[in-house]
């Protein structure tokens, strides 16, 4: 066998086309499998596949369909390895010997990385989005290029911070690719200094911008300060375009760092950095006209579909280079967001994060649930939801400071006696999955016990009532969410409204009982006196919250009857 065998594949026109060579190693030997595949194809009918005795459904979903671009993770791509891509000049350093082109192409890389990052946040794999950048895969090579090196370092540190947040929050689904890093170089030495490196580059460009604005002959360019590129007419525009991109990355990294501080201590600082991020994004959008006017040549196609502000294809990217890292899953077709849509995504993400940071950390559970319901109406993406989850639950406590039993105690309006009870250690309280049965058994066992145990029984009954109310409220919200997400077909509306009708009746019943119990508890805390006629009249009224639920009940009932008649017709 030759050291570097060359394989042939039939092209579309039926003629063989030579493919790039795949080098063999000391432990591997390449063999031609074509005769075996041809024999298998001759003996297989459509829909059949070759498999072993232990083949199962999961293996079937992960099976390779040879030569199918959507299923074969080892199918031919432009380059077989990072080293081969670099040897063929796919990611040159410097990017160009012309300093003006070098700066412009560096900005293209920054813009495309932003688009890749947005596509990653939207659910594509990290390997085929952000880390399709060859410069990120060999970050040490960018050291001579200070501008590109600083930007790639902050990108890598940002990706690591986002993966950490989503992994800790566990708001993603098991099949999501978001947190899968596939052995990519996400952890690098010196990433803790990424901000200091970025600040040094930013300061250099800021000095250059100030020098460009100097109109007096007395304010001459310092001897140690070299221009970014060779065209003095473009210097100021390039400085502004670079600064807004560098500053956005810096402030966005600060946002992620501040929001992870325990007990919400960094939320105010995060809001300041969010405001700065939004300002820099506006400047990034404004820089597009300048970047498109730098060269006489124009890009092909619709500029709104491009992943760079200039409209040119970026250098140093290959989405298929890491496709085999995602095995055993087949490679996905990656559609990178356009540059404008990527900016729009980050604007929305920052607004969602600002809503989280502006929350008052109200310890009342009812206010918290209202906030969560209102927040989800904006349909926040995974990153924003993860930050909210980490803010709410830290070290098993609400906001990292309030024990959940104390929060539930306040929400359920439990009597003061609970503070002196070991109710939290009671097995029937801990096993909420079989709450009702456990509580009833517990209540039956303690009915003839001492006064302390009778108090515990009343507490259990009170908690059970509160849990039932919350369960029906969650069921109601679950059904409503189906409308907001457009999950129901028109033929299912009648059934859904009937479900809503049944759930709302139980919710109104439990809410009324809960309010009555809470009122009795508050009444016992006050002085004992004879009830006045005004108090009796007030108690006979239906609370507004229950009246509101009754309105919902009537609506659900009416819609159910209307839709059922429409179906009969």
From TrEMBL:
Family stated for the protein in its record: Belongs to the MAK10 family.
Keyword Cytoplasm: yes
Compartment list: Cytoplasm
A Pfam family that the UniProt record links to this protein: TPR_NAA35
Residue span(s) of domain NAA35-like N-terminal: 47-144
Origin species: Gossypium mustelinum
Protein name from the UniProt record: N-alpha-acetyltransferase 35, NatC auxiliary subunit
Domain NAA35-like TPR repeats: 356-433, 435-563
InterPro entries membership: NAA35-like_N (IPR057983), Naa35_N (IPR007244), TPR_NAA35 (IPR057982)
Superkingdom in the source lineage: Eukaryota
One Gene Ontology cellular component annotation held by this UniProt entry: NatC complex
């Amino acid at each position: 066998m030759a050291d570097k065998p060359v394989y042939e594949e039939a092209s579309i026109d039926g003629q063989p086309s030579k493919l790039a060579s795949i080098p063999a190693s000391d432990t591997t030997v390449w063999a031609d499998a074509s005769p075996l595949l041809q024999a298998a194809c001759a003996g297989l009918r459509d829909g059949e596949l070759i498999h072993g005795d232990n083949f199962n459904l999961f293996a079937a979903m992960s099976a390779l369909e040879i030569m199918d671009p959507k299923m074969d993770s080892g199918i031919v791509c432009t380059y077989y390895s990072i080293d081969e891509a670099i040897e063929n000049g796919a990611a040159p350093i410097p990017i160009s010997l012309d300093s003006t082109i070098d700066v412009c192409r560096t900005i293209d890389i920054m813009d495309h990385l932003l688009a890749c990052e947005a596509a990653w946040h939207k659910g594509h794999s990290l390997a085929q989005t952000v880390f399709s950048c060859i410069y990120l895969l060999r970050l040490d090579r960018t050291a001579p290029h200070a501008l590109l090196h600083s930007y790639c370092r902050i990108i890598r540190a940002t990706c690591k911070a986002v993966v950490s947040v989503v992994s800790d929050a566990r708001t993603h689904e098991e099949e999501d690719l978001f947190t899968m890093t596939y052995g990519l170089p996400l952890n690098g030495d010196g990433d803790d200094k990424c901000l200091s490196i970025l600040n040094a580059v930013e300061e250099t460009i800021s000095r250059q911008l100030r020098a460009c604005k100097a109109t007096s002959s007395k304010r001459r360019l310092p001897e140690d300060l070299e221009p970014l590129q060779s065209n003095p007419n473009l210097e100021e525009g390039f400085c502004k375009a670079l600064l807004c991109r560098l500053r956005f990355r810096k402030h966005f990294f600060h946002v992620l760092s501040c929001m992870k501080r325990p007990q919400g201590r960094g939320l105010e600082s995060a809001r300041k950095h969010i405001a700065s991020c939004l300002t820099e994004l506006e400047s990034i959008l404004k820089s597009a006209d300048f970047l498109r006017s730098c060269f006489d040549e124009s890009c092909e196609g619709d500029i709104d579909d491009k992943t760079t502000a200039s409209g040119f294809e970026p250098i140093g990217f290959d989405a298929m280079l890491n496709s085999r890292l995602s095995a055993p899953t087949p490679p996905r077709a990656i559609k990178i967001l356009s540059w404008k849509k990527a900016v729009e995504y980050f604007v929305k993400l920052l607004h969602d994060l600002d809503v989280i940071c502006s929350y008052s950390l109200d310890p009342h559970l009812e206010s918290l649930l209202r906030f969560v319901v209102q927040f989800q109406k904006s349909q926040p993406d995974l990153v924003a939801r993860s930050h909210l989850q980490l803010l709410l639950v830290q070290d098993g406590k609400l906001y990292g400071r309030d024990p959940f039993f104390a929060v539930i105690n306040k929400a359920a309006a439990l009597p003061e006696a609970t503070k002196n009870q070991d109710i939290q250690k009671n097995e029937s309280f801990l096993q909420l999955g079989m709450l009702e049965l456990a509580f009833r058994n517990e209540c039956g066992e303690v009915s003839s016990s001492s006064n302390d145990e009778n108090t515990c029984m009343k507490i259990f009954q009170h908690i059970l009532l509160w849990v039932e109310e919350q369960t029906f409220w969650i069921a109601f919200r679950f059904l409503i969410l189906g409308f907001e997400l457009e999950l129901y077909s028109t033929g299912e509306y009648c059934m859904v409204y009937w479900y809503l009708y049944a759930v709302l009746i139980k919710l109104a019943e439990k809410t009324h009982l809960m309010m009555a119990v809470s009122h009795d508890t508050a009444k016992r805390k006050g002085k004992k006196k004879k009830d006045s006629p005004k108090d009796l009249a007030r108690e006979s009224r239906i609370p507004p919250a229950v009246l509101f639920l009754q309105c919902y009940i009537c609506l659900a009932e009416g819609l159910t009857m209307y839709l059922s008649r429409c179906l009969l017709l």
